[in-house]
Amino acid sequence: MRVKTYFACCLLFLLAIPLAVSSAGRTSVVVVISEDIAPFRQIAQSFSAAIKQSLPAVTVEEYLLDDQGSALAKIKAANADLILSIGTYATETVLQELPGTPVVFAGIVQPEDSPVIKKSGIAGVSLDTPLAMQLQYLKKINPALRTVGIIYHPAENESAIKKAEPIIAENGLALKAFPVNSVVDINNIKRLNVDALLFIPDYVVCQPKTLKKLIVMTIQQGILTVGISAEYARAGTFIAFSPDYADTGFQSAQIAVRILKGEQPSAVGIAAPQKIDYFINKVVANRLGMAISGDILSKSKEVFGQ
Questions:
Q1: Which of 19, 94, 218, 274 is most buried by a 10 A CB count?
Q2: CA 267-54-44 angle, 5° bins
Q3: Handedness of CA 224, 227, 233, 239 (dihedral sign)
Q4: How far apart are CA 298 and CA 158, in angstroms?
Q5: Contacts of 184 by beta carbon, 8 Å cutoff, 6+ apart
Q6: Between β-strands 224-227 and 239-243, what pairing exists: parallel, antiparallel or unpaired?
Q7: 29-85 pLDDT per residue, tens
Q8: Do residues 230 and 242 touch, judged by C-beta distance below 8 A?
């Protein structure tokens, strides 16, 4: 009920904003999706529903990018007033192929790491869960928390580690970073000697077999693990944080309305997700001997192993 009320109130706010539409009296919006996965579909569906309620005259077309280029040709022919691009591939493609069309992006982790996105100055909603919020939850669950570890591939995530260091320090914790260049390097890690291990999006680390090995190791060593989606908690991390994808779509629609109203994308900027869900694995918590308050459990999006 609270979620429905939140969406209803926000939509009423959008409806109150007068918008300039095309001379034909209609606004054309195109949604471009990088790949057919559930989170991207949720973002697209929520965006479409929200912007249609705020702009009765809007038309929304949706395209999944393909390797043959047929979707791109249709996107160009649509001559949209605005494009919502979901995922890095879709965003970089439309920025390069349709430079004159306003673009709002969604569904991207660390969007500022893309040279194309950074140069464009477009607006959008990232998938980055605020690290400070994650740490605050961990400290609430385990007040004795002192050291946080991150295993990462330097070529991909050196900048992420540099951003994380001051945030972790500000929360009174120490960071122990483990740079790895291959699965072999990960296999050579025998003891982590940390209180918690944070997983971040990383092509070297986030492979199913590697994740399974690390999860087993951390349980054996009594270490809290933090995943980046519900699937991580289901697979065995102690807790996982993830943006609410439907709310991300709604938030993207809010940004699109502002741009269609006349604001410059560079002035709107990149927003963090407004709503973050967390998921807990009760089986793992029991294995670690970790007591979790009823308040934290009740506010969890889902508890696995109850």
A1: 94
A2: 75
A3: positive
A4: 36
A5: none
A6: parallel
A7: 999 999 999 999 999 999 999 999 999 889 999 999 976 678 999 999 999 999 999
A8: yes
d(CA 138, CA 39): 25
- Other residues' Cβ atoms within 10 Å of the Cβ of residue 25: 7
Q: Residues with Cβ < 8 Å from 265, sequence gap 6 or more?
A: 102, 103, 104, 121, 122, 123, 259
Dist. CA 120–CA 251, nearest whole Å? 20
Nearest to 85 by CA among 103, 70, 100, 109: 103
pLDDT higher at 1 or 230: 230
Please state, in angstroms and rounded to a whole number, the distance separating the CA atoms of residues 40 and 107.
Answer: 7
* Average pLDDT taken over every residue of the chain: 89
Give the chain's domains with CATH numbers. Answer: 2-127+244-275 (3.40.50.2300), 131-242+277-304 (3.40.50.2300)
pLDDT per position as a tens digit, 45-58: 999 999 999 998 89
Q: How far is CA 204 from the centre of its chain?
A: 19
- How much is the pTM? 0.83
Please state, in angstroms and rounded to a whole number, the distance separating the CA atoms of residues 264 and 19: 14
Residue 63 bridge partners (DSSP): 32
Q: What is the SS3 assignment for 185?
A: helix
Phi (first) and psi of residue 301, to 5 degrees: -60, -40
Residue 9 has pLDDT above 50, yes or no: no
Tell which wins on pLDDT, 2 or 291.
Answer: 291
* pLDDT tens-digit series, residues 254-286: 999 999 999 998 889 999 999 999 999 999 999
From edge to edge, which strands make up the β-sheet containing 270-271? 58-64, 27-33, 82-86, 103-108, 123-126, 270-271
Question: What pLDDT was estimated at residue 56?
Answer: 86
Question: 70-81: buried (b, 16+ CB within 10 Å) or exposed (e) per residue?
Answer: ebbeebeebebb
**Mean pLDDT calculated for residue range 274-302:** 94
